[in-house]
Every structure is written in structure tokens, then in C-alpha cells.
Amino acid sequence: MRDDSSSGKASNVTPSCSQSRNSHPHPYAHLFERLNGFDESIYNIQKLGKDKVCRLPHCIRVLLESAVRNCDGFLVTQDDVERILDWDALVNHKRTDGSVMLDVPFIPARVILQDFTGVPCVVDLAAMRDAMVELGSDPLKINPRVPVDLIIDHSVQVDRVRSKDAVTYNEEMEMHRNSERFSFLKWAAKTFSQMLIVPPGSGIVHQVNLEYLAKVVVTRNGVCFPDSLVGTDSHTTMIDGLGIVGWGVGGIEAEATMLGQPISMTLPPVLGVRLVGRLSPACTTTDLVLHVARILRMRGVVDHFVEFFGEACASLSAPDRATLANMSPEFGATIAYFPPDEMTLKYLLNTGRSTGEVEKIKAYLLQQGMFRTYENTGQKVSYTDVLEVDLSKIEPCIAGPKRPQDEVLLRNLKREFIVRSGSLRLELVRKPSYMDGSRKYLQGSVVIAAITSCTNTSNPSVMVGAGLLARKAVDLGLSVAPYIKTSLSPGSHVVQRYLESADLLPALEELGFYLTGFGCMTCIGNSGDLPEEVTAAIQSSPDLVVSAVLSGRVDIDFETEPLGICKNGKEVFLRDIWPSPSAVNEVVEKVLLPSLFKEAYQNIQQGNERSATALQQTIFHLLEESRRIHLLVVIFLLRALQGASSKSGRNGFENRSLESPFCVQQACAVTVGCDLLQLYRETRTPLIVIAGVKAVIAESYERIHRSNLVGMGVLPLQFLEGESASSLGITGMEEFSIDLTILGVNSVLPVQLDDGRQFSVKCRLQTKVELEYFRNGGILQYVLRNAASESTV
After folding, report:
1. Which residues, in sequence order, are CB contacts of 105 under 8 Å at separation 6+?
2. N or C: which end of the chain has fewer CB within 10 A?
3. Residues of CATH 3.20.19.10 domain(s) within the chain?
């Protein structure tokens, strides 16, 4: 059960370090003041130096406010606050001699999970309660310290299509396959405080977050602060489009955040993307997204924050921005951020948020200098670099056939598809039995078409556009081949409601796009059985998905070749049925009402009748062995084993891309691992922690991997500059003795080999908090011992 009210009075609120071990006055109490026009209070970061703060990118200001508010001298220190405030000097101008740490802590306002990656997090919480009993302490002390939302959306599969009962059947199959998992989550929802479980059949995690869960500004205990989050799904970045800083993290980082621990992160470079111009009438938001994904991928933005600005931002709706932010993982950025502005407030009102709530949000953002205005040209934000994107130059496009960043202009689709799928020969082939005689070639035929994913279905303009196109096609007598597996899997019930209100759903159904479920389905591989011949996929706007099934192929020139023949025998081209932007906007303005969102979400915590029946068990007993899973396909087998370390850990060294320089190269190009890792595989010893690994020495670390090692109590050590295992003559067969008596943050430690050789390594524990994690054996053990020592819940 979760109660995270966004309202609250600030009667006699006194700032203090609530997370510190010893209560003492807050070091930034002088920033604490009343929110103009309201009873709540804020930490006004502009008092740190308005000129300096105003030069910070808006996304960095969110990090700064979090550090100020959570500063307790241990998890977050005043040095951390100063580093963020000096972002411009440290990151942009490199004003550091190398001894200044660029790592800072970040404590998000909340955590969001989906069931596939979220179940192990909840399993760990349950295990910690068992451990508390073993320690002789109260298990009820183990609860999330920040609000946690878990949306069940990754379990539904497209088993039945092209029928009215498809959605009912698919949801019933979902309940049958996942009854044990769902029962466990129901138990968790009733057992843990600050945890909301959104039942299956409610929608896709990121769209539910956008339409319902997101606050923009949160109020707790009479204090207002920016909404922010991390999630166990890479597309958590979608919420950046609403002016909320959020990104995807690994499970260990998510658990640490749930338990009130900060995320350690390096101050990121921020690329400013200036948007200018307007999209042409032939383009959709999806075209914009695919184009930007390609150029940012080429630019290189890994480990960057991306922040959009420019006059064109003012014309992009919040769903348009969210669609673009959703694709951040595809171009490699940590976040793709749109600072909140009038469009943000308009979206909040349109989706059912109250007027009073929105007024408070605006007041807070204005007082903090976090509200984006487009008239104040004198406000100069400092970015690491700036890239300009002219929307007027974007053309209709698709992406594929392998990667979402592989943009293909629609006018070049036929030629490019042939070139990029050259490994599939264009020749006469024996067609499978499910295909009719209308296609001479198998290659290029459409056999599956899905309107799905939170990327597209959260955007009413492209969904309404697809519906208008479908209605025009049906009116002209066009149809879809019966062998094409068509499906419509919206990200929320709001989509179904406005398509029905606009009378567009019947036309989509006529073309085979019946509702199949509300969740991540085809877009994450839950498409059900597919023909063996399917070897390529393209990503496009819903409008073009409908166009593709009408033509039955993707090796087509939409400009010169018809989609089909209408009732009177005339050829029908894409341009004949493509809806104008004005027609789309007219329908959107008419049917997209706040009441739709209120109706869709008023009973979301109860779910539908099927989910209520499946989740009625309140006591969960985890069996060591379960026979049910042996009847399921592999993807569900993996899900059923989540949280069972003795099973799921066996794949730890199965990745064929793992190369070991300590192995003698055979005829194969890639080896699985060294002799020790091979022994772990043969003896089924799972993963490095259970295998007894206490330290890892490497030349460098990827951010999340280093953090995960620390979180699990494994010491990350790094060779000194210019040294490596190769240069030191290390074979991997030595015994290592590491002196931990001088262990400290970023300390240099001596390593003694059994043959007498010595060398030094750098400790990659980067904060005092991480040092405590390691000394306690990991984050969970650290939190467990602290909780056990607390006198009250």
C-alpha cells in the first residue's frame, strides 16, 4: 500500500537532517522559505547565487535541489552540493587538477518498477524481513523509504488476434501463466508501506507514469520539491518529456534507492539540443524521434544528459516530448530532458490533475527558477555543447531492419530495404501455407504488424492519425491480408476510450487491429508465435504501420506505387488517405478530455475482474521447486525463476561475447572464459558473489557495473595509469593478497602475488557511504544492520 499525497500543510516546519545519524540543524536552513501564495515551504536554491544557478542546465538544477534538501553530512555532504553548484567550471571548463572528485550523490523522489525487473527487488525486501527475524529484530522495520510504484505490464502476450475476444483471452492466459508471481506481488502490496502495485491489464509502465503517477512537483511533510525518479526499465526516460528527471538503473541501484540510499553518479556533460522550425504536414512525431535518434547516436552522447531548448520546443506538446524522451536509450543518453513550461501545465490539466495542484506546481517552479519561458532571451544557460535540429528539414521515415537508430527515409524505403536485407536473397521461393497467391516474393512481405509500445501509444496525435487513415481506407474498400498478425496494444485504457469516442476503433478493427491487451507486448518480444521466415523488423509511426498492412509489403515506393484498389477499381495511394495535421488536431481537441483520464484511473489499484480474482491470495509461500514453469516457453521460464538465485544465476558466464585473454585461443574466435570460470559453469556455481569473489581488478569500469559491485560487497580495484594485467605479466593463475588496513575512498592499495611480485591498485570506492557498504558486505546488509539497530519502525 502506498500513500504519497501531494498535499500537505507546512505548520511550523523546521528543516533538519532527517537521514543523519545524529539530529542536527540542516546546513542549508537559510534557504528554507515559504512557497509564495501557499502554506508549504521550499529550499530555494537561487539563494546559493542566482547568477550561478541560472547558468546551470535545468536538469542539473534538479540534482542541486535534491542535494541541498537531503544534505545530512554523510549520505550527502556540503562538498557534494558545492560540486554540483560548480558544474560549469568542473565539467565544461575542466577546472580540476584530477584530484577533485566529480562523483555526486542523487536521491530521487521515488522509484518505478515493471514486473519483469521489479520482482527480484521485491523478493529481496521479503528476504530482508526474514533476515530481520533471524537477527531478533522487528521485520516490519524493512519498508521502502521512498514511494515505489510497480506496474505489471511485461507479462501479457499476443496469443489471440483479429477478434473481439482477443483482449479477454490474452489477459486470461496472462493470469494463468503468472498466478504465483501475481500472488506474491499482491502480498507485497498489502505488506510493505509506500508500495503501490498497479495490477495487470492497466497499461504500460511509462504511459501510466506519464498520465497518472507523475507529479512534476511533490509535497511531503509540508515541503515541496521536484518530482524525480529512477526505474528498472531503460525507457524510464520517457518522463523527462514532462519536465521530470528520470532514467533507468540496474536492480541493485533501484533497491538501494528504495531503501533510502543515494545513487552515486558522475557529474554529466549536458548537450543542449536547440530545436528550430516546424514539422511538415507529411511528418509525425515518430519521424522527429527517429531522426533525432540517428543524429544523436552519430554525435555520441553516452553518459550525457541531453536538454532540449529553442523556440520549436514551445510548439511541441507534452506527449510529443515524451515520445522523443522515450528514445533516449536508443541514442545512448542518460536522460533527454524538456524543462517544464506552459505546455507541461496544459498537459497536467488535460489529464485530470486539479487546477489547485497545477497552480502550486507553477508557483514552485517560478520561485525556484525551474520554469522554462521563451520570452526571456537574456537568460543564458551554459551547456557543454550545443547541437541544432531544424524540424522543417525532417522527412517521413522508418527505422530498421535491425536497429532503431538506423533511419531510412520513406522515399528510399524500397531501395534501402533491399540493400539492408541483402543477406535475404530476392528470388522466387515456395511461399508458406499461410500466405495467399498475391505475393510473388516472400521477401518484403508483412506478416506481423503491431500498434504498440508506450513510445507511440502515449501520443494521441499519431494514434488518432492511424485511426483516421484506417477509416478512410475502409471507406474506400481497402482490406488487409488474413495471414498478417495485426494487433493493437495501447499503453493505457485512455487510448481505447478516445478511439471509441472518436468512432475510430471500428475502422482499425476492420483492418485487423483489435485490442489484444494493455501492456508491453510485441514491442518487448511478447508477440506470440511467429513464422520462422520473419527475419527483419521496422519501426514507424502507427499511421505507417496501417499503411504497410494495406500494401502487404515494405519493399514499396509509397509515392509511385498504390496501396491497393478501391471499390470503383481506381488505385489508392498513401497520399489519398493520409490525414492532415488539422484533421488530427480537430479530433484530438474534441475527444481528449480530462474526464477520460479520471475515469480510466479512478479504480486502477483494483484492476479488472480477472486481475482481482488472480490476485486474491494474501499469503505467499515461495516453493523451492515449482513444476508449473516446466510447461511454459523460455521467456516465461526465466520470469518464473526471478528471485531464485540457485536457478537464475547459472547463466552468469554463458554470454558468448565474454572473452578471456588468459585462455589459449582455439579455432573459435571467442572463448567463454578462463579455466576458473569454466569450473563455475561445470559445477553450476552461479555468478561472482556466490562464487566467493571478494575483489575485481580491471583497467576501467562501466558506471553501473562498478556501482553493482559495490552494492553487492565486491571491492572494485583499478590498475594504475599505464598498467594492465598484460603489462604486469599477470596470467590469472596467481594468488592475490590485498592489504585492506589502509582502505579508504580512492586510496591506493598494495597487492602481493604468491610469487613475490608486488604492484599497486586504486580503490574505486568513491564515497564514505560506499566504504560503509563494502565494510558491511553490500547495500542490503548495510541497510539491514542499520534497521536492526533502530529502536523504532
Report:
1. 67, 70, 75, 76, 80, 262, 263, 264, 265, 767, 769
2. C
3. 687-789
